[in-house]
Structures
1.
Amino acid sequence: MITVASLFSVAVFAPLLGALVTGLLGRVIGDPISRIVSVGLMVVSAGCAVAALWFGLAASAQAVAVPVSTWVQAGGFHAAWTLRFDTLSASMVTMVSCVSMLIHLYSVGYMSHEKNPVHRFFAYLSLFTFAMLMLVTSDNLIQLFFGWEGVGLASYLLIGYWYDRPSAVAAAIKAFIVNRIADLFFMVGIALLFLLFGTVSYDNIFATVPEHVGASYRLFGTSFPAFEVIGVLLFIGAMGKSAQLFFHTWLPDAMEGPTPVSALIHAATMVTAGVFLLARMSPLMEFAPVAKGLVVVIGASTCFFAATVGLVQPDIKRTIAYSTCSQLGYMFVAAGFGFYQGAMFHLTTHAFFKALLFLSAGSVIHALHDEQDMFRMGGLARKLPVTCAVMWIGSLALGAIPPFAGWWSKDAIIDGAWMAGGGLGGFAWTLCTAVAFLTALYSWRLLFLVFHGRPRVPELHDHAHESGPVILLPLLVLAVGAAFGGWLLRPWYIGEHQAAFWNGSIFNAPDNHVLATLEHTQGLIALVPTILSFLGVAVAFVCYMLKPEIPAQLARSMRPLYLFLLNKWYFDELYDRLFVRPYRALARLLWHVGDETVIDGVPRGLARLTVGGSSGIVRIQTGSIAVYAFTMLIGLVVLLSTFLLVR
Amino acid sequence: MILTQIAFYLFATVLVLSAAMVVSARNPVHAVLFLILGFFNAAGLFLIAGAEFLAMILVIVYVGAVAVLFLFVVMMLDVNFTQLREGVQRYAPVGAAIGVVLLAELVFTVARWQVVPHPAPIAAGNGLPPGITNTEALGRLIYTDYVFLFQACGLVLMVAMIGAIVLTLRERPSAKRQDVSKQHARMPADTMEMMSLSLGAGTTGNHALAAGRDGFLRPHDGYGAVADEGGPGVRAPEDHEADHHHGA
Amino acid sequence: MNWTLALPEIVLSCSGLFILLFGVLQKRSEPSFACTMLTLVAFLVTGILVVVAPDGAGYHGQFVNDGFSRFMKILSLGAAGLAAILSLDYNRQEKTARFEFPVLLLFSTLGTLVMASSANLMTLYVGLELQSLAIYILCAFARDELTSAEAGLKYFVLGSLASGLLLYGISLVYGFAGTMEYAGLRQVLTGGAPLAAGLVIGLVFVIVGLAFKLSMAPFHMWTPDVYQGSPTSVTAFLAGAPKAAAFALLLRVLAQPFGHLAGQWQLLIEIVAIATMFLGSLAAIGQRDIKRLMAYSSIGHMGYAAMGIASATDAGIRGTLVYLATYLIMNAGTFGCILAMRRRGRALTRIEDLAGLGRTDPTLAVLMAVFMFSMAGVPPLAGFFGKLMVFAAAVQAGLWVLAAVGVVTSVIGLFYYWRIVKVMFLDAPVAGAFDHRAPSLSFVSAVTGVATVLFLLVLGPVTGAAQAAAAALFG
């Protein structure tokens, strides 16, 4: 196990080393070396992660803690730097470091046209990867929170990487603030956990979960079960990171960052943190049925909402961004039904095909010199044959066309929802199945608009060219994953080997039979999503290849609905009215009245008093001996009188 | 004893009255004269108390020296007393108020003070044999027991003297003093030179032209320089400057 | 009688007379430099004698030697020595270099030694007069300057008034207690007899008389005028040794004979200290002349130092003594910097003359900044520790108001000290660089600057000595 522990440590800390070297010494060692160091260390990290997972599985041991150092030791509060090695964390580490490594490699090509040195970019990327690895390998909630916030910080830095663009800066701030709001709930959740269990370490918490099942909080005369409260609070934190409904607004805006960043955020890191959190906290969540129900509702709603918005977006990256949002909804639905294995499975396959899609979109944008509007593209299949091919593979995976990766994971989730049954199951199944159609529709809308048909803007089309090998190599690797990942991984994640694979790192309550019943889904029901997916492809072919006037007519005839979708259900406007403006008004009030009048007023008044007193005293100092003598005598009399009176 | 009582009240009354006159007299000369009168009466009180040495010292030192010095100063200095008086009038109300309050407080507290009916003699502890004069007793005290303070007082006076000299003594370089040794050591050649003049040239003309011929004696530096040659008492060049500038 | 008790004083006065004689007889050249050097030697010898002098009381109860007197004497001698060094070049440049200057300085210092050793109200008075009279003359030393003469006269007239009040107080005390010796007074006051009102009134008068010398409000009025008008070398001395000596008197009188009346005088000292701190910090804000500013600054410092007395505890007096030690160091250094303010042979005293000093003379500017920060009480400089101790003592004694006022006025004080630093480093230079700095000034500034910065290293010994001195006072 020593080898596994050290391999695992290297996998986690190699990106940190890369971030430090490129970030602190980037100026000294120069851009080329920075790139080599950064990518090289990521390769090391990915290699070690794969090796660690392999050996770990071979040894099939229980969770192993790799102590690094003590962190906080205050009274009864202990938090240590410890790497937790179990299948959950190891599989996440492997996925994160592999995808991140490919994105690093891709960035070398993608960022080659930057005017400014890009060592800063690689430092941020590596830091981001390290923070995510820290998050997934945490052994306690405080360390998890460290990684959680580290991811938030790095995403802020990366989204705002082009700091001379006001829109990028605004998007970075928006991402950060939205995440902070969700983090506040998360922190409260951690604090409540600590109060309840007296520890923040996973092992200690999970070991004592059954003892605290009956605990409850009383607030406003009502009693709330403690686990439900904590579960909801943790889920709100997860909603922020995973951009679920109500906290999703930052995700599409995050497209302002360079495309590799979008790929990293959407595929491997950050957004998956929420799903991972629920899987990690499964021993606790299993005892919070209401919270789980909420997870299902939010997940399914997000899934549907994002898919509808994705239908009408003209921007290539935004379309894919909303698809991420939507796919995360699937994962939460699975997690909400206690089907954490399915969530993790979809998370992993999604990482491959979503990274693939984003990087291919980046390749397209790169080829068209930063053009992102799909309605100005078209017919690029001949110009960019490799990109077109890999994007097809990515879309086939995303659209859940068998036997590509997405089909395996998504169908499992939809089946799980059906088998869970009840009102909640019906609701989730209906929405998820509808979204399967929508997903295929907007995916092929994108493909047809970008790669097929006639070029809409000839001059753009003429200058397009296929990207270099540095960009294409990661695409091809990811395409392999997107094509075969589902088929290869299914037996381990949710199939026959799952119990041995997860090895107790995910907890299912005794009454939770989702996994067992998965195979018993009725044949026709199991086929419905697949059929709908094919239907979506067909509709897209009709609308965007055969009769391109249909979408325009639809948009005209159902203008309110179109605008509603185009404006993302008016969430941004709603938030502006509900939160931003009242907050600004309050801030203005506090600024003018609270700060300027009261807080500034007191010292200003004191200063005026001081200066006034000073000039008064100086005025007595006339230089006349008589005045001086009288002052002395008056002083004497005053002292004497005080003395005689007080005595 | 009754005579002593009468004398006491006489002296005391005159002392208080003359003290009042010192501060209220319009003419400063009169004020000083009242001061002298006050001193005399105080000396009388000392005599009654049996402190004949203090009485004599008061008369000799204060009347004979200090008061007379005051008188000189008052008469010789050109002080505008009406102006001073204006200042007094301006501050009179404040001064009076402070004085009254202070007096009231003192009276208020001191009034509760009772004289010990049979006071023990204060000097009893000094172990002096009885019948010794108080001059001698004072002398013994001052020069033996209180020698430290006596010497310290001497130093105070010393400092006062230094101060008087430092602040007032100015050595005037224009004053002519005779330095005999310097005068004796002087040789004619040190100061005089033989000048010869060609016909019609002035004494300030070019020496070299006329060197070696017969002529007349004159100081090296011309006639104008003689007066500037200061005596040996001149201490530092800066004093010249200061005195030329500020001199009386 | 053991006359060797007063050996340091005797030696110092004899050397004073010798130096005077030497100065008068030295006809050929100006003996000012030689006399100053001799004075320094005399200070050094006296200092050694002070250290080795035996403890005990003598001279018929007029004189006492103990740890306290030794501490204060060393402080006085040190401060006076630094002032003498500071005067060396300044007096020459100002053309007031006469040999009487060191002689008067010496006698004034002698006065401070006598004050520190007083065991009798008469000794107190004579020592005070010896010290004051010499200073009156020194203030008017630049006799051709109108301001100097005015300063001397003002100080003299007001000082006489204060002396009168002090004498009146002493006479009241003597009248009601029947003795002027501290030991005797202590016996009378602890005898259990009802306290005579006249005695405490006398005490108030004595306090007022001493408060004048300490320039504590409202008896401070002379301070700015005299500080500004006197030759700067005199101001440097005036702000140093005499303050320490006056504090020695106040401490000794209040702690020894009147120690049992602490409840009575505590309030008075508190009132005076509060008034002094406020006045010192407020009035300094509007000043343009750095000497005047230093006057108010020293007023403020006296207020802080008095906090220790007001707490009337061992720790408080120890704090006061440490405060005085640090104050004397900072004061000498600051005046060393002020004396170095010369352009084209003319001495400058306006604050705006310092503008841009950080660029024209960084060494001087840094030194000055160190002293200013130290005076403001910024850690880890010397001034911080004294402040810390007196504040802590006041808090321990439950004098919260006093401590709060101290903190508030410290903040105000920081403003005007900082203003000087700002003028030096942030303002643009208006005129050229200062003249070349005289070696004596460089020496004093550098030595005191190092002492200010590294005071932490000697904090232990100094506090230990102060503790011993305070213990001697109470024991």
Note: Chain A has two domains: 140-571, 600-646.
2.
Amino acid sequence: MLELHPSYPALASIAERYPAHRGSLFQTYNDLLLAQQWREVEVIDLGDCRRGALQGKRPKTATDADALLHVVPCSLAESISLDWIQNAFKSLDNPQSLYLAVVSDDSSIVYYKLSSGIVKPSI
Amino acid sequence: MKGRGPNKGGARHHENNRIYAHPLPLTFSDPSSNRTRPILGLLGLSRSQVINPHCEGYYDASTRSVWVVNQRDSEILWRRGFFGKGNLSRSEPSWFVRQVKDRQIRRVGSNASKMTSEELREKRRADRKQFKLDRAAAIAKVAAEAETIFETEGRVVVPALFGPQIPSGATWKPKTDESEPATDGNSDETEAIVKNTPDIEEALEDMEHLQLTLQEAFFLTWNFDCITILNPDTDEPLSLKDIWTSFQQVFLAPSTSISLTPVLEFDNPFLVHYAAYHHYRSLGWVVKTGLKFCVDYLLYKRGPVFTHAEFAIVVCPVYEDPQDQESSATNIQNASPFTWSWLSTINRANSQVMKTLVLAYVTIPAQCRLSKEILNSPACFAHYSVREVIVRRFIPARMRD
């Protein structure tokens, strides 16, 4: 069913390479592009984590609108280890932080911000 | 205070009671008049009929869900029982409406219509942020005053963190909304701009659908037959048998051997979760996913539109026979004893939002007692049971009454 959706072609090559995770990739891509209205959304191949990841920028009106953000989708059924997270950071060239998008069957997505190292809480 | 617009007070409540009047997609019609109905009733007869809306949805294995793309069906399923969720929205599908409004704002600069729940949420967050800034500024001001008093008079004043000068949740008011429609001078300009630039934005296509979880879809099709689930590749309706096996198969580990019939197991996550879903739905609760609160399900008394969820359910599968757990290929979540820190975390998170944590223990029947043949039909649910345990934090020093 998701192959018939207009936004599928942008994901097709990576979705076919990692079919087990194409559902969470598809849902996260649509949420970022259409609901959150991110700009310059692109799909990256994260071979070490056996899935595709996404990068993009927040809408122009948001705070910190020019930062390039990375999002790694995963589903509720998976169990994630610290090694997995380390791999994700490494494959994305060690960004300061990345967002883990946990996708549920009813299309709810919860984003967790993972930072590399200790981060002081903002005031 | 009452009735200050379509989003406030009594008007919205009446409107909601009207829109969300039916708890399930099936409705009843009774052609009898008001006089004949009680007479027939005395004889134990009724001419009322069930009206079935006959909705349609497509099964998608990758997202483990059923997509309802037809707008009439999405509206019926959401309004009569709060089934499903718009895949680009917070609850009911409102993406298209929001896009249209955004375009209207870009062109004309004002937004006079009723706010969607997403817009209400953004406004609430913006107000709260402003309140925190105002409060922090007031506290800093009071502290600075205490400093100057000490320097000039040598008197020590303890700066207050609350009091008449510092805004609190009860006393703070947001500044009046400044996004008025453009004044006359500006509107001429915007009209000119709109006339001169041709409408270069393409026609807007609705990219959203209503997404039902497999439990919701099975509940609707098995109990009420009010939704037909189609195979997206062939557009053919799936039989109940096909639905029953596909919904379980999607959770099984991909098998290396090519077999025509999938091996069904008692501990398939679909069966365990469906047992809990059906249990609460049949008791009249509206059951939605609880991803945002680290739980499996949230129970609403009437629906998300009316009140917040009171209960947060975590499904804990329990194997009747521990042997089955050891030999199982499925690693179902929460089946092993949990750590106290996990329980404590989830309880804390839910107490903060005033929800009661409920552990729903679903018993998985033993393979030594029942043959796997019964898994070929939904009649197997008779062997699953659900028991609840409520968790509340006990603080001995405070809870003396």
Note: The two ends of chain A are 45 Å apart (CA to CA).
